[in-house]
Fold this sequence. Notes:
Elements: H1 12-27, E1 33-37, H2 44-54, E2 59-63, H3 70-81, H4 91-102, E3 108-115, E4 132-138, H5 141-146, E5 151-154, H6 160-171, H7 179-191, H8 196-205, H9 212-224, H10 234-245, H11 250-258, H12 270-280, H13 289-305, E6 310-313, E7 316-318, H14 321-330, E8 337-339, E9 360-362, E10 372-373, E11 379-381, E12 402-404, E13 427-429, E14 450-452, E15 473-476, E16 496-500, E17 518-522, E18 540-544, E19 550-552, E20 568-572, E21 579-581, E22 595-599, E23 608-609, H15 610-613, E24 621-625, E25 634-635, H16 638-646, E26 654-656, E27 662-666, E28 678-680, E29 686-690, E30 700-701, E31 712-715, H17 717-721, H18 728-734, E32 738-740, H19 751-766
Parallel strand pairs: 1-4, 1-5, 2-3, 2-11, 3-4, 8-9, 9-12, 12-13, 13-14, 14-15, 15-16, 16-17, 17-18, 18-20, 19-21, 20-22, 22-24, 23-25, 24-27, 26-28, 27-29, 28-30, 29-31, 31-32
Antiparallel strand pairs: 6-7, 10-11
Helix pairs in contact: 1-2, 3-4, 6-8, 7-9, 8-10, 12-13
Amino acid sequence: MRIMPTTKLVGRTTAERNLEQIWESLMDHEARIIGVYGMGGVGKTTIMRHIYNRIKSQKIWVTVSNDSSIERLQNSIAQAIGLDLSNEHDEMRRSMKLFEALKRREKLIVIFDDVWDSFPLEMVGIAEDMACKIVLTTRSKNVCRAMNCQKTFEVKVLSTEEAWELFKEKLGVNAVLSSEVEQIAKLVTKECAGLPLGIITVASAMREKNDIREWRNALEELQCSTMDIEGMDDKVFRILKFSYERLKNEKIQSCFLYCALFPEDYEFSPKKLVRYWMAEGLIDDMGDWGKEIDKGHTILNGLIDVCMLVRRSPSCVIMHDLIRDLAISITRKSPRFVVKAGIQIRRSIGTEEFPEDADRISFMRNVGGKNTRSRRTNQTIASTRNKIEMLSGEPNCPKLSTLLLRENLLWGNISHEFFNRMNSLRVLDLSDTQIKYLPASVSNLENLHALLLNRCRRLREVPSLAKLKRLRILNLFDTDIKEVPDGMECLVNLKQLYVSFENVVGCNSLVLPDGIVKLEMEGCDLSSLPCLSHLQRVQKCSIGHSSMEWLLPIRDDSTITSLPSIRKLSLQWLPNLRGLCEGFLRPGSFSCLKIMRVIGCQVLENLMSLELFQHLQCLEYIHIQACSKMEEVIKGGEEAMVEEEGDNNNNNNTIQLRKLRKLILRNLRKLKSICKQVIICPSLNRIVIEGCPRLKKIPLSLDNSSSVKKGGIEGSKEWWDALAWDDPNTQTLLQPLFHEVREVEGLGMKRRAEENLEEVASTSRQR
C-alpha cells in the first residue's frame, strides 16, 4: 500500500487521543461521512496523514484548498483512480463516469483535506448507496454540518504542559534558560494558544536567544501585533507574523515572500527555487556562481530551520497554507504582488490585470500541467491548468521584476508590444505554454536575468537575444525552434543553458559564452561540439540524443586544458559516439570530474584511456549502461602488465582512485574488462554489475570491506559464481557483501540507479 510522508505527532497525549477517536469512528460501519474540524495550524492534516498510512483498503487523498471547484475535485479523483476525463467537459457526465468507476471499488475511503465550502458528493461520483467512506478536514464546523457528517471531531489545541514541552523541544536540546527567561518563555508559549504550528515557528525563531530583553520584546510583539487575514484567526496571524519578522534580514524575508507566487500546496524543487531567487537578485552577486548557489541553499535551509518552509524530502519543499496566507497578506502592500496562480482563469488577460505598481506577478498554475500527484503517495492536489489563451495590450509595469506565466494555454500567443514597458523585468517564465513565437518586445528586456521557455513544444521562433547581456539563465529545452537564436554569443553573463537543437539551422556556427557553468543540450547534429573546447568554467554538462562522434574535436593547440572545471558529465543516447576526444587531451582535462554517466552509446568500445583515467582523482561515481559494443571501460595498461610479469615488486600496475564511491555497469553484453590494472578505491561502497556476462574479473582493491558494507555488491548469482579471483582472500572477504539481483534485459533503466545518481549529485552540491 502507498505510504504518505508525514511528520511525527506533536502533543503526544492530545494528538494521539484525537487520532484514535477518528480511527475508531472510521472503522465503525455506522458513520459514512466523518468531519474533522479545528483552527488552522492545529494539526488536522498531520493526523489524517497518519490515519491514511494506517488504512489497508483502497484509499484516495484529495487536497481541496480555498479556491477549489467541482471540476478540479472531479479531476483529482479521476487521476487518483486512473480515469481520463480530459475529453469530457460536462460536469454531470463527468460525475456519471466517476460513479461508474468508483462503485466497482470495495471498501474505498476518500479523504478530502482542507475543505472550505460544502459541495455535493454526487457531483464527484460518490452516491449515498456506495460502499464508500468519506473523511473531510475543515476549519469550520459549519462545513461539517453542510456536508451531513454523521460524526464530527474537533482537533483540539495542546494542553499547557504539552505546549511547553513542544516549545522547549523546538528551542533545541542545548537550550538552557535562566529562571527569569523561562518565566517569560512560558508566557510566550501561552500566547501561542496551544497551536502546534504557532509553537513550532515561534520557538524556532527564538532559538539561541538568551538575552531577557529579547524575550520581553518578543512577548510584547506577540501580545500587540494586529492585522486581519480573511479566514485566519487574529491570534494565529500574530504568531506567524512574529516568526516572519524574526527572519534575519530583508533579503531572507524577500526569499520567503517569493514563495507566495506559486500555487497553494506547490511542491518546490530546492534547486529550482534557489535559481528563481538568484535570477531575481535576492542572492547577492558574489562573482562566483557556485558560491551564490551555496548561499541560496543556506537561506533555504534557514527558512526550513525556523519552520517557515517544510522539507518533505531531499527534492521537495512545501509551504504550509497558513504561512502562504501570511505571505500573500504581506505582499498586498509592499512589495506589491499579484498572485492568481492555479485559480482556473478561462479567458484572455489584458492590461487591467497588471497594476502599474506591481513588483511581481504570477498567473502560473501548478506542477506538470495536469493534476499533481506525488509518485511516492496517492496524494492528489486538486488543481488544474489556468486556461489563459492570450496576453493582449501593452501593460505599463515599470517596477515589475518577475512575471510567471508558466503552464497556461496561450493558444492566441502574446501581443507584439506586450513587454515594451516592463524594463525592470528580471525573470520571465513561459514554460509549458503553447506559444508559437516570442514577441519582438522581449529583445529589449535588457535587465532580464532568466528566460524560461522549456517545454514550449510549439515554439518555433525566438527573437534576437543580442541585447540581453545580463541574462544568466536561458532554457530552450524541448521546444520546436528551427534556428539558433541570433545573438547567443552576446550573452556574456550566461551561466546556465538548456537547449534542444534537433534539425536546427546554425548549430555548426554555435558560439557559447565562456562563463557557462551548466550546459544541457539535446539533438545537436554535429560530429563534435567545438563550442565546448573553450568552456573553462562549465561544471555540469549533459549531452543527449545527438549524432555526434566525439564530445570534443581534434585540438591543434595542446596548451589549453579541456573542461578543467567539469564535475558532472552525462552522455545519453548518442548512437555514434566513439569517444571523449578524437585528438590529444592536455593533462588537467576533466581533472575535477566527480560524476560520470554514459547510457545508450551503441558504438562506444571504451570509455577513456588509462592515461586520462588515472588523473581523475576526484571521481566518485561511474554509471555505464546499454553500450552494446563496449569491451573495456578503460583502454590500455597492457605494457604495465607485461612489466609486472618480469618484476614481482613492480607497482606500476595499480591506479589509485581514493574517492570513488559507486560503480554501476549494466547491460554491457560484450564487456570483458573494467581495467587491465588494479584500481585502489578504499571509499567504494557500492558495486552493481548486471547484464555483463563476459566480465570475469573485478580489478578493484578495496583495502578493507568496511566501506562496501554500506551498499554491498549486486549482480546475478551466475555471474558472481563464474568470477575469477587473483586473490582467494578477496573473494572470502567480499562474499558476505554480495546481494543477488535478477538480471535486467535490454535497455531498461533501474529507478534505484537514478536514485543513486541523484544522491551523489546531492552530496556534491552540498560540498
